[in-house]
Amino acid sequence: MIIDTEYPDRLQYKLDPVVVEESVAKAKGALLNSIKRSVYLYRVDCGGCNGCEIEIFSTITPVFDTERFGIKNTPSPRHADIMVYTGSMTRLMRMPALRAYHGAPDPKLVVSYGACGCTGGIFHDNYCVWGGTDQLFDVDVYIPGCPPTPAQTIYGFAIALGLLDQKLHHSKIIEQPGDFAPIPFEAVPYKVRTAIQRKARLLSGYRSGKDLSNEFMQALESGGSDVLTNIQTLITRQTDPRRIEILTQLKDDLTTMLVDPNQNQQQLKQALQQLIPSND
Amino acid sequence: MFKTIKEVLRTGNATVKYPFAPLERPKDARGKPEHDAVKCMACSACAVACPPNAIQTPLDFEANTKLWSINYGRCVFCGRCEEVCPTNAIILSPEFELAVMSKADLEEICVYSLQACVECGSYFAPTKQVDYVARILSQNLNDEEAEHALESVRLCPQCKQKADVLRFKEQSKKAGEWL
Questions:
Q1: Quick check: bond before A62 cis, omega within 30?
Q2: Residue-wise DSSP of A92-116
Q3: Closest CA to B93 of B28, B42, B139
Q4: Of chain B's two ends, which shows fewer C-beta atoms within 10 Å, N or C?
Q5: Where are the domains positioned within chain B?
Q6: Is pLDDT above 70 for A269?
Q7: 3-class DSSP state for residue A215?
């Protein structure tokens, strides 16, 4: 489904994926079903940003300790049971990746690690990138994340070793007739809503601006007799001085919108007065 | 030796219990983007904001639908989709257990219908988005501009242009000045 590039197929170079022999595939299936020993892991960076390597090494620290499951990092592909490919498949790393793959004894598991390893990630449309590891090898486990946290890594290895079950499944949802998108904070007049959202985002950035304006408008919408008191309670509840400052500015803006003599939008004033009856 | 054992006992066990016990995640930890298909109106704001194009919204003119698709394998969990969503339909949950055995499982697809133009019958925008805009415009009925926009909300861009030209012609006729 996902569109990788807009160039036609005949202009794109296609890699020859490594074909796994039937007997090896059978042995691999048996290995996936029940592995009754420690597994050794060999890691190949095919052209990522090195964030994935840092996370792999934090996974083998005492806090997350993968060695309690017998997973051990090895410096040679000759000892490896699991090949971990991080980073998108780049032109220059294709041969080293293949050599490491053929260096490891069969049967072996291939793990795509990180967003780049799974699909090419943020580099998917780069000129020297062919996409994820699956362009070249038969991948057994995909571990998404940019980079995957140590917990995500442990979960991925637990799936590879059959300790845990997979949670995520392909889903296709079709719109039902009669579905409609509810307007958030519908009771607050549209122009007031946008003014508050813009001001909050201007003052504290997109992410926390959205949080702050949502909290502010919840207090506005919760209604009751006196909306301004609601907002004042919201402000006094805060402990962070930065949030207090921004919420106070938003409240000042609201009162200015209400009493501004140069208010040319008569209907906005009316709507606000309906919302805040105590302030007539 | 005794000193070392004492130190070990004092420090205790630092290793987390995960995966045998659930892992405690900090507040605002950015994990799987949870998409609410009912709240979503397929406006494509998230697809425009998505840095690695993990969210894509291709149009299917044969079935007259708009697809909303996300590939968790390409997502970098930056949260920009959450920031830009006007209906709060996509929120990054702390859910992090996303590893899968097959690539198809990384994808989520939603299908939305397109609105047909009431004049010429061509499909031009998602039905839910047109409906959302119409509801917002009907909140501002005293605004002249909003009223005219509401009249032509279910027209395709070409028909909207025609309607606007005709409206200006009428206005200038009324005002007594001919173009």
A1: no
A2: TTHHHHHHHHHHSPSS-EEEEEHHH
A3: B28
A4: N
A5: 26-114, 117-179
A6: no
A7: helix
For an interface test with A, which of B17, B24, B68, B96 has the most A Cβ atoms less than 10 Å from its Cβ? B96
Is A183 close to B23, i.e. CB distance below 8 A?
no
CATH topology assigned to domain B26-114: Alpha-Beta Plaits (3.30.70)
DSSP-based helix, strand, coil % in chain B, nearest 5 = 35, 20, 45
- Dump strand ranges (E) for A20-70: 39-45
The CATH number given to A9-160 is 3.40.50.12280
DSSP conformational letter for A9: G
Residues 6+ apart with CB under 8 A from B22: none
Res. B125 pLDDT band, cuts 50 70 90 = very high
| DSSP H stretches of helix in A43-189 | 51-59, 94-103, 114-119, 150-160
Residue A179 phi, psi dihedral angles, 5° rounding: -70, 140
The CB density around residue B24, as the number of other CB atoms within 10 Å, is: 10
- Distance CA(A141)–CA(A138), nearest Å, equals 10
User: Per residue in A144-183, pLDDT tens?
Assistant: 999 999 999 999 998 888 888 889 999 999 998 888 899 9
Cα distances from A193 to residues A18, A221, B17, in angstroms, run 56, 11, 45
**Chain A interface mutation, best of B107, B136, B141, highest count of A Cβ atoms under 10 Å:** B107
Q: Nearest residue on chain A to B132, judged by CA atoms?
A: A181
